[in-house]
Queue: 3 jobs
Job 1
Amino acid sequence: MNNPSDTLLAQYAPLEIWKAAENQAARSPHKQHKTGAIIYSGSSYRSRDDIYSTGCAHPHDGGKVSRSTHAEQHAISRLPNNCGYSICLIVTLTRNNHYATCSRPCKGCAESLCKHCCIVIYAEKCTDGSWAIRSESPTRLLRGFLIPTKENT
Ligand SMILES: [Zn+2]
């Protein structure tokens, strides 16, 4: 499967949010890996009005620090004040608009997300070819939980 199924995605976030993140990713000027991020209300999400900010960018490097502005940083920079309990959902697409093997935020983005979001959600392809969705606090990501199940080669 090139992409996680809608059924799987919908178990973790409204499909509307996933599609919004895919649309952000598709806007990225990068050709190889295009990332989109949506920060939305985790406590009151009912409609698009509860999306706090969106961001797009930039090559995603699977956990290493990069100097370019990443989608997550872009979304954070556009956040209004006092967002409260918020979730950052990240989608990275390949050249063919398929989900990338792992859309995990890099260390720098995870550090920034700690200050603004309680939860980060992203998709990851398992070694058996199936998809998993990660829903985890950025703090735990930084502490090394949920390392990628497949090495980036
Ligand atoms: Zn990043």
Job 2
Amino acid sequence: MSALIRQRALINPTQAWSRLPPEIQQEIGRLAITMGLGHMGVSAAIAPRSGFLAAEAEGLSGLCRLIADRLVEAFDGDGQPLLPDLTVLGIKACRTCFCTDAFGCPEGCSWISSNLCSSCAQDARGSF
Ligand SMILES: [Zn+2]
Ligand SMILES: [Zn+2]
């Protein structure tokens, strides 16, 4: 089965963040810290669980709201989010399907080259 992957536009999160005004950058930082600490508390199963769950969820929903309101360039013409370029964060990703070591293709894959996974290499050979 050949997976047809719609070519997606990537957004550079570092550039997007750097173009925001300082007060929005600060708000993003506060929300990210809140979400991260909430997630760590939930993952470590420490009390009060509902407090950590709330911190994680409120941080994430606040981030989404702020991105939707203030980062117009992060969305395509249909209002769908662009895919963040993970390589900017130093994360190795496939150039075709954007899978990573932590989130590989559903059928399983390995690295064929520094930026191409075995699933996509197979698709390229199988296409005509
Ligand atoms: Zn791939
Ligand atoms: Zn893959």
Job 3
Amino acid sequence: MPACPACMKDVRRRDSRCPECGVPLQLWEGTYFRLEEGTPPAALLAHFEKLMTDRLSREHKKFIAFRISRKTSQYKSSMVACERLIRIADMDLEAAKAAISLLFTDRTWSWKTFPMPYSRSLSEVFPAALAVARAQLDELRQEESREEQNYQATLDNSDLFPD
Ligand SMILES: [Zn+2]
């Protein structure tokens, strides 16, 4: 059963919004994604472009936008590569994005160059970065769920409407 990426609750109907938390959703390849981000491969490509823009701008000490122009074969190859990376991440777009971020920011990988999403250098190290990203996300999600439980317990234990 596909789950909402925002609240992780199962979505039972093909709603355009999650019936639990109300976030707008799109169904893509049997998995729900946030509608606001565009298709998942486009969202991942946009994330890659932003990281490259940041890197180039930092290196050249002026703003340099990295954007793969649409209608080119590089763009098609990039979209195919991004789709593949999302599948490797078991359709967890957040984890795929976090893994790409680590490639640009974690010193284990940040000294390498990843010219395009379909670069061999990227696909070689993506699984390792994904494992680190997943561990970090799991910790974050557990923390959020603990906070949610604490909040719920506080609500349950407090007398909100005294007679
Ligand atoms: Zn939801």
